[in-house]
Automatic annotation (TrEMBL):
Gene3D superfamilies: HesB-like domain. This is Iron-sulfur cluster insertion protein ErpA. It holds the Pfam family Fe-S_biosyn. Transmembrane segments: none annotated. InterPro entries: ATAP, ATAP_core_dom, FeS_cluster_insertion_CS, HesB-like_dom_sf. Residues 7-103 form the Core domain. The lineage of its organism: Bacteria, Pseudomonadati, Pseudomonadota, Alphaproteobacteria, Rhodobacterales. It comes from Acidimangrovimonas pyrenivorans. NCBIfam families: iron-sulfur cluster assembly accessory protein, PRK13623.1.
Length: 108
């Protein structure tokens, strides 16, 4: 059985801030695509839910994972980081055997 990813309270709080400030979709989609310097890359964007999405929700905020990306994100942690290199959503993925320096590309 695949363990679904977990979303931190900090990530849900940032989504609530985005929802209060922006128009349009407010759900955060975290997907895995082929490409990047390590073989796979994360595609993180605001989007609308699709029929086959896993929806992780807290206090009305939603994080969406499509069925193709879900096995790559099993047991991962989706967080929000605000540090010297910038503010961004990050994925801590225990399935990644290596990743690039910027953290958006990985291999399994």
């Amino acid at each position: 059985m695949t363990v679904p990813p977990r979303v931190t309270d900090r990530a849900f709080a940032r989504l609530a801030e985005i929802a209060a400030e922006a128009e349009g979709p407010h759900a955060l989609r975290v997907a895995v695509e082929g490409g990047g310097c390590s073989g796979f890359q994360y595609d993180i964007k605001l989007d609308e839910p699709a029929e086959d999405d896993l929806v992780l929700e807290k206090d009305g905020q939603k994080v969406l994972i499509d069925s193709v990306s879900l096995p790559f994100l099993a047991d991962a942690v989706i967080d929000f980081s605000d540090d010297l290199i910038g503010a961004r959503f990050v994925v801590e993925n225990p399935n990644a055997t290596s990743s690039c320096g910027c953290g958006t590309s990985f291999s399994i």
